[in-house]
Structures are given as C-alpha cells and as structure tokens.
Write a structure and sequence with these properties.
Blueprint lengths: L5 E2 L4 E2 L10 H14 L1 H15 L17 E3 L6 E3 L4 E2 L12 E2 L4 E2 L12 E2 L4 E2 L12 E2 L4 E2 L11 E2 L3 E4 L2 E4 L4 E4 L2 E4 L8 E2 L11 E2 L3 E3 L9 E3 L4 E2 L13 E2 L4 E2 L11 E2 L25
Antiparallel strand pairs: 1-2, 3-4, 5-6, 7-8, 9-10, 11-12, 13-14, 15-16, 17-18, 19-20, 21-22, 23-24
Length: 294
C-alpha cells in the first residue's frame, strides 16, 4: 500500500499523484469499511497511514484502536494477539508474530505482551542457558559444584572452575593438598616434589603454600631458595607465621638436634646435662650440670 500516491476517492493508485491529492475523509471512510469487513487489512492500512502522516490525521475520527506495542495483528481474524512470554516487541503497529523477538539464550521472560527487551531477565552467575525464547527461570542450569560462570552464560562451555578447584574428568574437583588451583589449573607448590612444602586442600594461590615441618623459609620464594632444610641445632615446625614465613628456632642452651628436626622435643641435652621439664605444656628447657648435682 502506497498511502501517499493513492486517490482514495477513485480507488486508483498512481506513482505520479501528489500527496496533496490525498483525501483523508475518503480514506477514513474506507478504513471504517475495512474495520467491519477485513480487520487485518484495516489494521495494516491504519498502521501505514499513522507512520506516514502521524496520528493528527485521525484526531476527529472514531476508529478501532491499534494493537498496542507488545502485540501483533492476527492475519486470520485481524485481532490483536499478545506476544507470548519469552518474547517481546518494541515495534508499534506489528503486523506479524515475526515482530515478536525471542529473548536470547542466557535470558528468560515470564511476561506476556512484553513491549521492551528489558523484560528479558539474565540468568545469574554460576548458571547457563542455551534456550532461545525461554519463558521460565528453570532454563538456567547450574554449572555444578566448584564451577561458576558470568551472568547470562549461554553454554556449559562458559562454566569454569572456581579458584581452589581444577578440571578433572570433565568436572571441577577440589584442589589437593600440596597444590594450588587457579583458573581451573592445578599447580604443585614449589618444593612439593622434594617433600619440602605443602598446602591445605582447596588452596587457590601459591601464597598459601607453606614449608613442611623440618624446613623453614618461604615456599613461594622458590627462586630465592624456597624452603630450606632445618640445620643441626635447630628445630623447624613449618607452616606460616603472620609474615607468611616458616621460622627456624634454635634449640635451648646446652642442647642440640639433628638436621630436619621438627619440634623442640627433637632437641637433646648435651652430655652432663639433663632436661628438667618435658611436658607438652612446658616446653622450655631447664638444664643443670648433672655431675655437680647428682
């Protein structure tokens, strides 16, 4: 329909007719006839006229209302049909169900007759949905234990392991002790293979690696020596202090220890000295010259 090039009084269309020839009275009368006989054609012509000339053309006329945004004209009976949930239409004067746009994968909508794409809600992080035109949040599938995703993820391939987990047999597994896991990759703590370091299960950073008992230093500073073997005369409990450092402690006076000692109990009195206190609650040494005070 070429609204601007039709002489509605004679029902003749010609490409050389000027817009001034347009007879609004005849056009509105013809629209009223279509409204009673062919609603689909009526809606189409009315929509075309509004887009061409604006609504002022019909200011003094009584005509059936246009289908609202979020709906379309059913070609079978000319009635307005709301876009189903999971779709929306921002197009005024929609003439076909094809004007109802489906919410993309990763989104869903429970609103029928939606007139704005904002009604398509995003699946939360940690989920995904490959369904187009979804009308329920049930399409948002969980990525599974230890996995996450960005909001609106559209495929299970968008799910990645959380920090502290790594990919194993197509699933995210908790990071083992002695390792740290980031971005789905498992990495051994520096010195782990030599038995010098370890970490708690679920660790996500190298900074969580610590020296094992019998060693001291910084496990993560492997390029600078990492965990060092505890020397004779010292004991090393391992682990981390407030500065992320495993300290080496000197055995009490007049006592000694073998290398790799793990606690003060590993310290032994030198000859002619004896240990006065050895209970777990009192680990400090009191030594005495044995031969002078037997």
């Amino acid at each position: 329909y070429e609204i601007r090039n039709c002489d509605w009084s004679s029902d003749v269309c010609s490409s050389d007719l000027e817009p001034a020839r347009f007879n609004s009275t005849e056009f509105i009368a013809r629209l009223n006839t279509y409204a009673q006989q062919d609603m689909a054609t009526y809606q189409y012509l009315l929509g075309a006229a509004v887009m061409s000339f604006g609504t002022d053309l019909f200011a003094n006329s009584v005509l059936p209302t246009l289908c609202p945004v979020g709906s379309y004209i059913n070609s079978a009976d000319g009635l307005c049909v709301a876009c189903i949930a999971g779709t929306y239409s921002e197009t005024p004067l929609s003439m076909s169900v094809r004007d109802c746009i489906a919410c993309p994968a990763g989104k869903f909508s429970v609103v029928a007759g939606a007139s704005n794409r904002s009604t398509c809600l995003t699946c939360p992080d940690g989920t995904f949905s490959s369904v187009i035109g979804a009308n329920t949040s049930l399409v948002c599938q969980d990525c599974g234990e230890g996995a996450t995703s960005v909001k609106g993820a559209q495929s299970v391939t968008s799910c990645v392991c959380k920090d502290g987990y790594y990919m194993s047999d197509s699933r995210c597994a908790v990071c083992d002790a002695g390792y740290y896991c980031s971005q789905g990759v498992r990495n051994g703590c520096p010195g782990r293979n030599e038995g010098k370091s370890s970490s708690k299960a679920g660790s996500s950073s190298e900074s969580q690696c610590f020296c094992r008992p019998g060693y001291y230093g910084l496990a993560q500073a492997w390029s600078n020596g990492g965990c060092q073997s505890c020397r004779a005369g010292q004991y090393c409990t391992g682990g981390l202090d407030s500065q992320n450092y495993a300290a080496a402690s000197t055995c009490p006076e007049f006592s000694y220890s073998d290398p790799l000692a793990t606690s003060v109990d590993s310290c032994t009195c030198q000859a002619s000295f004896k240990k006065l206190h050895s209970t777990p609650a009192q680990r400090s040494f009191s030594v005495k010259i044995g031969r002078a005070h037997v």
